[in-house]
Amino acid sequence: MSRRKRSRRAALARVARSTRQRASGFRARVTFAIGAVVLGAGALAVYLVREDTSPGGVAAPTTPSAATSPAFPQATYVGRESCVGCHAQEVAKWQGSHHDLAMQVADETSVLGNFADAKFRHAGVSSAFFRRDGKYFVRTDGPDGKLADFEIRYTFGVTPLQQYLIEFPDGRIQALSIAWDGRPRSEGGQRWFHLYPHETLRAGDPRHWTGYEQNWNFMCAECHSTDLRKHYDTQADHFATTFAEIDVSCEACHGPASNHVAWARQEGDWKRFDGDRGLAIALDERRNVSWAIDAATGNAQRSRSRETAREVEMCGRCHARASRISDDYVHGRPLLDTHRVALLEEGLYWRDGQVRGEVYEYGPFLQSRMFAKGVTCSDCHEPHSLKLREPGDAVCAQCHLPEKYVSSQHHFHPMGSAGAACAACHMPSATFMEIDSRHDHSLRIPRPDRSITLGTPNACNACHSKESPQWADAKIREHHPEPKPGYQSFADAFHAGSRGEPGAQQQLSELVRDAAQPAIVRASAAQRMARRLDPAAIDTLAHALGDPDPLVRLGTVEALSGADPALRARLLLPALGDPVRTVRIEAARALASAPTAGWSDAQRAALEKGVAEWIAVQNFNADRPEAHTNLAALYAERGISEQAFAEYARALELDPSFGPALAYHADLLRALGREDEAEASLREAIPRAPREAALHQMLGFSLIRQNRREEGLRELGEAVRLAPGDPGFAYAYGVGLHDLGRTQEAVRVLESALRSDASDEDALFALVSYLQEAGAAERALPYARRLVELEPQDPRARALLAGLEALPRR
Hints:
Blueprint: H1 3-20, H2 81-84, H3 88-94, E1 103-105, E2 118-122, E3 125-132, E4 135-141, E5 147-151, E6 154-156, E7 161-167, E8 173-175, E9 178-181, E10 191-194, H4 216-219, E11 232-233, E12 238-239, H5 250-254, H6 258-265, E13 291-293, E14 300-302, H7 310-319, E15 322-324, E16 339-341, H8 362-366, H9 369-373, H10 377-380, H11 402-405, H12 408-411, H13 422-426, E17 429-432, E18 436-439, H14 448-454, H15 459-463, H16 469-479, H17 491-499, H18 504-513, H19 519-528, H20 535-544, H21 550-560, H22 565-572, H23 581-590, H24 601-620, H25 625-637, H26 641-654, H27 659-671, H28 675-688, H29 693-705, H30 709-722, H31 727-739, H32 743-756, H33 761-773, H34 777-790, H35 795-806
Antiparallel strand pairs: 1-6, 2-3, 3-4, 4-5, 6-7, 7-8, 7-9, 9-10, 11-12, 13-14, 15-16, 17-18
Helix pairs in contact: 1-27, 1-29, 1-31, 14-16, 17-18, 18-19, 18-20, 19-21, 20-21, 21-23, 23-24, 24-25, 25-26, 25-27, 26-27, 27-28, 27-29, 28-29, 29-30, 30-31, 31-32, 31-33, 32-33, 33-34, 34-35
C-alpha cells in the first residue's frame, strides 16, 4: 500500500477514533459500541491465500448449554413473587438495595428530588421542577430547543444521585441531564446539579438530554431492569421496549426461573430437572470453598481452584464497559456472545491499567491478582443486599491477616486515619457523574515511580496532592528500599507500544504469549500490536488466535483486521467458526469483501453466515448512527453503492454531525470517481463537525486530486492546526508543502510533529529525505537512526541510514 493511500486510510480511522472517544452521556457504554466504526469504501481490499487450518477451514461451534438444549423446555421469566416462598431471606436482603431501587415509577415513595417549584439555571436555560395533579414535571428546553413541560415517568437510582426519565410518544425514554444530589446537605447534597456543568448542550447535540447519548432504551435500560428487550423499529423509528420487571430482580442474575419453579413445586414434568434443579445458571463457584490464611505470608489460599468465571461474567453484564450487540442473552453463555467488552484502551484506562474513563468494575477486576487467585464478586459483596460482607478493612481481613496488614508497619499511616484504610492505597477512587465516587477494582499497590516515568496517577499523590510523585516515591523507598513491583507488570510495554518505541513489539509479544498474564492484558497487548505487524508480531498473533480465552482471540482478530489482505484472509478464515459471537463476527467483518475464488463451499457459507450475524448486530442497534455507518461501509466494500448511500443518509438523519458518516460518504463518492460531489459533500460536512481535522485533510486530498493544489494545501494546513502534534496530519501537509517547493516549511512541520510522537515512519521517511535534499545530512542522521530502530528489517530505512553515514562529516 502506498504511503499516500495509508495517509487517507489513517484520516478515515482518525475520524472514527475521535468520534468513538467523545465523552458520552451518563452510564455511557457506547463510545466503542457496535464494534469499531469500520473503514470506508476503497480503504481495504482483500485477497485470498488459501490455507485451511481446521476441517473445512472453519472451527466447529460448541454445543449449546443444557439450559437451551431442545431436550429441555425453554425457561421463561416468572417474577420475583415466585421466589419469595423458598427464598424469603434473600428477597429480604435484596429489598431496598441498589438493584431493587435501580428504576422505579415516579411517585411519592420513589422521588427524592425537590419538586416544590424548585428552579435550576444552567447555560442560559432556566428549568423548573414542580408537581401537578399528583404527577412530577420539569419545565426545560425540549428537542426543539423551546421550553416545555415534561412529565417525569420514572426515577433512576437513589444514591449518591437520582436521575429522572421522560417518555416520548415514539417510545423513546430520555434521561434528564439535571440530576438530584441525594447526599446529605452536610456533604454538599440535597440540590439539583447538571451532569455537564462546564458545557453548553443545545437541542440537536447527541449529549443534550433529548439526544441519543441520553437515550434510556439503548444506553442504560439493560442494567436497570430485568429481561430488557429493546424492540426498535427502524422503519417507524419507534421503540416498543419491554422488561419483565422494572428493576434488577432475582431473574436478572439467576436467569428465567420457570423450570426451577416447576422443579421446586414438583409440577408437570419436574423430574427432568433433577440434575440441575431447572436453574438457568449455577452460581455455585463458591460452594464448599474455603480460604485459609497462611500465617507465613499473611495471605489466604482458596481450598480449590475456581474453574469457571460464571459469576464474574454475570456481574460483568452490567458492571463492564461494554456495548450490547443482542438481547438474546443466555445465562451461563460467554459474555462476549451478547456484549462487546472494552479492552484496556487509551482514554478508558491509564497505560498501567488504572481506571481513567467510566469503565465500571469488570475490566479493572480482571487485571487483579484477586481474580487470578480465584476471588469472585460475592467473596467481598453480599450478592442480594450488595453490601460488603464485612465493613471497611474487615472485608479485606477475610483473606489478609489483620496482624500483618492492619498495622502502621504495613501502611505507615496513623491507625484509624483515612490513609490507613486498605482501599485508600489499593483501591483509589475516581469520581464520575460529578459526585459518584467509585473504587478502582484492579487492587494494586501504589507506584509513584510510574507517575514519574509514565505520567500515570498513584494513590499516594491522590491524597498528598500538594506533593510530587518524586516525594511519594522517596517515602515508599524509606520503608521499602527495593519496592515490590506489584502484580500488574504491563505498563512499560503498553507505554512503549502506544508510542511505537523500538522493541515495543517484542515486549507486547511477550505479554501475549505469557499465559500467567490476565486475559484482558494479553488481549489488549495483542490489540496494540496492530501498529506494526512485522513477521515476529504476525507469528505471535497467529498463535493467539487459538487461545482458550475469547477476550484474547477478540483482541487478536482486531489486530489482524488491518493486516495485509492476503495474510488477513489466511489467518482469520478459521475464526469464522469461533464459538463466541463477538469474535466470529469481527473475523467475518474483516473478511467481508474477500474474493472467495478457491474457497470451499463450507468456507463461503461460513463467511456469509458471519456477515449476516454482523449485519444483524448493526440492525439490532439501528437506533445509532454508528450502526448505519458500519452497514454503509460494508455495502460500499461489496459494491452495493445505492444501499451504502441510503445507510449513510440514515446515519446523518440520526446525527447530522456524525464524523465517520460524513467522511466515509465523501470517500465513497471519491471511490466512484465522483470527485466534484465528494468535494461538495466535504464542504457540507465541515460546518457540521468543524473540529474534525480529518475532514479538512480529506478535503485537501480532494482538491489536490483536482489539481487545485494551493487550495488543498490550505486544508491540509488547517488539519494540522486542529490537531497539532499528530504526525499523520503533519505528514500529509509536509508532503504537500514539499511538492510545491516549500521544503523548509515541510521540514518545520514534520519536526514539530515528531517532537510529540517520534515513531511515525511515514513522517520520519519524509523528514529524512527532505533534510537530505536540503543538504542538512547532519540533522537528518538522528531521524534516520530512529527509523532503523523502529524498522530494523526495512531495507529502505537501512539504505537511507547507510547513505547518510557514508557522507563526509563537516
